[in-house]
Design a protein that fits this description.
Length: 380
C-alpha cells in the first residue's frame, strides 16, 4: 500500500494558505496561560466544542492538543483538568468538517500497535483529517504516575524512532514482524487502515540535535521555539532546521507556537495582557512548572529565578504577541517571511478572543496574500 501524506484528504494542512494557523492547548484548563482571572479558559468539552466549530467555520488549518496527565497545583491547578487527546480528537473530528485535528501521544505510555489502531480509528472518523503529534516526554512526575521510569534523552528518541517505525508499518502493511532493540513484534495486523490511502500527518517538537534529527527523518513537521528576543534568532533556527532537512533529503515544514492578545488599541491589549499574565499570575503553579524543568531558587539563585518566573507568566515556550490587529498581522507576516510554515496559537480565553482575531487579523493576512478566505478554504 502506497501512502501519500499530501493527498486530498489532508487538504486542510496542505491547502492554499501560505501561513497555516491552528489552535494549541485548548484541551487543558487555563490553556497556555497560568492565570487566576475568573474568565480564564475552562478547557471543558462544551467550551472546546464551541471553539472548534468556530475555528472550523473560520477556515483555520489545525487543532493541536497538549498531552498532560497531571496539573501544576497552585490556586488553579494549572492544566489539571485536561481532556485526553485521542478521545478529544475523535469527538472534534466527528463535530467538524474540514479542519485537521491532531492527537498528542507520549510514545512510552502507549504500545505502538495500540496507538496505530487508535490513530486509524480517529482517521476513519475524520475521513482523513487526523494527525499525530509524537512526544517523548520530560516530566518525571507524569511517568511516575504510570509506574514507568523515564528514559534518558537519547534513549527516549531511540524508543520513539522504533515506536513510530512500527506504527507506520501497521498503517501500510497487511501483516508484519518487527525485531528491534526495543520491540519484538510478531504477526501484526491492522484493519481498517487510515483513510484514503494516505497516512496521518506526523509532527514533533524538539530543540536538541538528536530530537530534531528524529523529527526530520520521521515526521512531516517540526515545531521549534521562536525567540522572544528577535526575529533574526528565529530565522537562524528555521534556517538550521531547513539545512539539516535538506542534508537528509527531506522537506520538513517548520512551525512555532505563540500566544495572542489582540485589541483595538495597543494600550488595551497591553493592559489586558498585564492584568492576566502578571497581575494575576498563578505563581505557585508557575513555580511547580519550573521545578519540573529543574529550575528552582536553589538551582538558579534569586535574581535569575525571578527573571525566569516572569518569563513563565507568559506561558512557557510560546511567543507572546500583544497589540492591535495591524500589529499582530504584521508580526505573523514577518514570521512567515523568515520561513515558518505556520503557528499554533493560544489565547487567554480561546472562545472569547478568537472571534475578534478571525474578524480583524485573518482578513489582513488575506490581503497580504498569506491566507485565503474561509469559504475558499472550505472548497479546497
Amino acid at each position: 500500500m502506497t501512502f501519500d501524506s499530501t493527498s486530498h484528504e489532508r487538504a486542510a494542512m496542505y491547502g492554499d494558505n501560505k501561513l497555516k494557523i491552528g489552535l494549541f492547548g485548548a484541551n487543558l484548563s487555563s490553556g497556555r496561560t497560568p492565570t487566576t482571572i475568573p474568565e480564564r479558559w475552562s478547557g471543558s468539552w462544551d467550551d472546546n466544542l464551541r471553539l472548534v466549530r468556530m475555528a472550523d467555520a473560520a477556515g483555520l488549518d489545525f487543532l493541536l492538543p497538549l498531552s498532560r496527565w497531571k496539573g501544576y497545583a497552585g490556586a488553579t491547578n494549572y492544566q489539571g483538568n485536561g481532556l485526553e487527546t485521542f478521545s478529544w480528537a475523535c469527538g472534534v473530528l466527528a463535530s467538524t468538517s474540514r479542519i485537521t485535528v491532531f492527537a498528542t501521544v507520549l510514545a512510552q505510555l502507549f504500545n505502538p500497535i495500540l496507538a496505530s489502531k487508535m490513530c486509524a480509528t480517529a482517521d476513519q472518523i475524520g475521513h482523513g483529517r487526523f494527525g499525530l503529534n509524537v512526544v517523548t516526554g520530560w516530566n518525571d512526575s507524569e511517568f511516575d504516575m504510570f509506574g514507568i521510569s523515564m528514559k534518558d534523552h537519547v534513549d527516549r528518541y531511540e524508543y520513539a524512532d522504533e515506536w513510530l517505525t512500527i506504527v507506520k508499518k501497521a498503517w501500510s502493511e497487511d501483516e508484519f514482524d518487527y525485531a528491534g532493540k526495543i520491540f519484538d513484534i510478531k504477526g501484526a495486523r491492522l484493519a481498517p487502515k487510515p483513510a484514503g490511502g494516505s497516512r496521518p500527518l506526523l509532527m514533533n517538537a524538539a530543540a536538541s540535535a538528536v530530537g530534531q534529527e528524529f523529527a526530520i527523518r520521521q515526521c512531516d513537521a517540526l515545531f521549534v521555539q521562536a525567540s522572544r528576543k528577535s526575529d533574526e534568532e528565529t530565522a537562524a533556527t528555521v534556517k538550521t532546521v531547513k539545512e539539516a532537512a535538506a542534508a537528509l533529503g527531506q522537506a520538513t515544514d517548520v512551525y512555532t507556537v505563540g500566544g495572542i492578545t489582540c485589541r483595538p488599541s495597543r494600550s488595551e491589549a497591553k493592559e489586558y495582557f498585564n492584568y492576566a499574565c502578571y497581575e494575576n499570575a498563578d505563581l505557585e503553579a508557575i513555580e511547580e512548572l519550573m521545578a519540573s524543568f529543574k529550575m528552582t531558587r536553589a538551582s538558579l539563585g534569586d535574581a535569575e529565578f525571578e527573571i525566569r518566573r516572569k518569563q513563565y507568566c507568559l506561558g512557557y515556550s510560546g511567543l507572546p504577541m500583544v497589540g492591535t490587529p495591524d500589529e499582530i498581522a504584521a508580526q505573523l507576516a514577518r514570521l512567515s517571511e523568515i520561513g515558518l510554515a505556520g503557528l499554533g496559537l493560544s489565547f487567554i480565553n480561546y472562545s472569547d478572543e478568537l472571534p475578534y482575531f478571525c474578524e480583524e487579523v485573518l482578513p489582513r493576512l488575506e490581503r497580504m496574500g498569506l491566507r485565503v478566505p474561509a469559504h475558499e478554504a472550505a472548497l479546497a
